[in-house]
Specification:
Blueprint: H1 8-38, H2 42-56, H3 60-97, H4 116-146, H5 155-177, H6 191-215, H7 247-270, H8 276-284, E1 288-289, E2 292-293, H9 302-323, H10 330-351, H11 364-391, H12 397-419, E3 428-430, E4 433-435, H13 438-466
Antiparallel strand pairs: 1-2, 3-4
Helix pairs in contact: 1-2, 1-4, 1-5, 1-6, 2-4, 2-12, 3-4, 3-6, 3-12, 4-12, 5-9, 5-11, 7-10, 7-11, 7-12, 7-13, 9-11, 10-11, 10-13, 11-12
């Protein structure tokens, strides 16, 4: 029998998401560096980063609801992309007008410098980025699942392929935008990074708009992602009278909520990449390679590079285990992901145990952390997207994807708060645990993610039973 390939619509969504992730991660790679270069102290930048990345993943609740009830997936994706392009352009203008606030790298800002216009433009840019992502993010992920039959075994592989698109974009974004990394003496240089992000966002929407009618069809050849019409269900079939959720549908939704709770602990630790781990890369990592000093923001490409390299390996491992009936369930894979996260922080904690403030260490420790974390990410994130796609009631598909991203929103806000514990020469406390060194700081994440992994693994048999049809 001829092996069935994936629908071409998957690759259109792949390219669209890849370009959008280029825009997002390219901007994110320089965002905190831009803020501490001329606008805010390190703690303030950490909190703004946390609120921004948190709200980016909270607004998909609104975008998913509007798509399910009014706009459909396609219209929501186009609207969201245009709003994000506007947001990146406002970030570009913000950096155009910024005045170098000469200060020490530790965060002392010259009060005589007035960057009020820059801050207003930046906040406006963040607003449109947050709003636009709300329309874009849940709908493009939902459309991946809509390309296939409900029981199609290719879905997990499709989401892994889609996830590779995400990470190709996440690789290229920091590498390209990082070329224009500025510093506290030359913050206007950041504007070119934001402009690159804006252009890539526009290109992705143009490609999507031109090709959507040709490739975005389901297994029956019928268009997907169109606005809902009166008296039809999400598949375009005559609508049945509105009925309450069945017992099994309620159980499926409960599984999504329970797993989403554990996902909070994963992303709160993982998203330190954009804040505390960026500070660590900038201040306490030796970035010299044969006389060339690598830009700090380049480190944020490492996880994405590892995803692209390791995704086929992980898919092969799951498929091989599956042939022997040994493949872990979706929730057990996510527990494994949390365990890898804990192991990554344990690795870097060991590497910095005797390191004092101001000392620099080999980049092998940060590189190793990102490698181990990538194994965890591949065990958790694409599997989670597939799980939501499979368990969501059809008429709530985009809304449930929005709820899934809500856990990421909460975790990003928590990530920003936890980043303020990054050691600065003073002793800080968290739940009675004193943090005065890098070792203490990283051990917080070892313990947090390790406990979450054990708890999720313990309840996996129950969740597996609840997930059955």
């Amino acid at each position: 029998m001829k092996k069935q390939g994936h629908p071409k619509g998957l690759y259109l969504l792949f390219v669209t998401e890849m370009a959008e992730r280029f825009s997002y991660y390219g901007m994110r790679a320089v965002f905190t560096l831009y803020m501490i270069a001329a606008l805010f102290t390190k703690d303030a930048a950490s909190e703004i980063y946390g609120y921004y990345t948190g709200l980016v993943y909270l607004t998909p609740l609104l975008g998913g609801y509007i798509a399910d009830r009014y706009w459909g997936n396609r219209r929501s994706i186009v609207a969201g992309g245009l709003l994000m392009a506007l947001g990146q352009f406002l970030m570009f203008l913000s950096a155009c007008f910024v005045q170098p606030a000469i200060h020490e790298p530790e965060g002392m800002i010259d009060p005589a410098i007035d960057n009020q216009l820059t801050v207003i433009l930046m906040m406006g840019g963040l607003f449109f980025l947050i709003l636009g992502n709300g329309f874009f993010k849940p709908n493009i992920s939902t459309m991946v699942g809509s390309l296939y039959k409900p029981d199609d075994r290719r879905k997990d592989t499709a989401f892994t392929i889609f996830y590779m698109g995400i990470n190709i974009g996440a690789t290229l974004g920091p590498l390209v935008c990082g070329i224009f990394e500025g510093d506290y003496l030359n913050p206007t240089r950041f504007k070119w990074a934001f402009l690159c992000a804006c252009i890539m966002m526009l290109l992705s929407i143009i490609v999507f708009y031109l090709l959507q009618n040709k490739y975005l069809v389901d297994f029956k050849g019928e268009a997907i992602g169109l606005p809902p019409t009166p008296n039809t269900d999400p598949d375009g079939m005559p609508a049945k009278p509105q009925e309450p959720l069945t017992r099994k549908e309620k159980q499926h939704i409960a599984v999504i909520f329970i797993v989403a709770l554990f996902v909070i602990f994963f992303w709160a630790a993982y998203e330190q990449a954009g804040v505390s781990l960026t500070y660590f890369a900038d201040q306490q990592t030796d970035r010299h390679i044969f006389g060339w000093e690598m830009p700090t923001s380049y480190f944020q490409s490492f996880p994405a590079i590892f995803v692209v390299l390791l995704a086929p390996v992980m898919s092969f491992i799951w498929e091989t285990l599956g042939r022997f009936g040994k493949e872990p369930s979706s929730t057990m894979k996510q527990a494994i992901g949390l365990a890898f996260l804990s192991l990554g922080y344990l690795f870097i904690a060991y590497g910095v145990k005797e390191v004092e403030p101001g000392m620099k260490v080999s980049m092998i420790w940060l590189t190793g952390l990102y490698f181990i974390h990538t194994l965890g990410e591949l065990s958790l994130s694409p599997i989670g997207l597939s799980l939501v796609s499979k368990l969501s009631p059809k008429h709530l598909a985009s809304l449930m994807m929005g709820i899934w991203f809500m856990s990421t929103a909460i975790s990003n806000m928590l990530a920003g708060r936890l980043a303020t514990l990054y050691p600065d020469g003073t002793t800080k406390t968290l739940l009675g645990f004193e943090i005065s060194s890098l070792y203490d700081f990283f051990m917080v994440f070892v313990i947090m993610s390790g406990i979450a992994a054990i708890c999720l693994a313990a309840i996996t048999p129950i969740l597996k039973q609840m997930s059955k049809d």
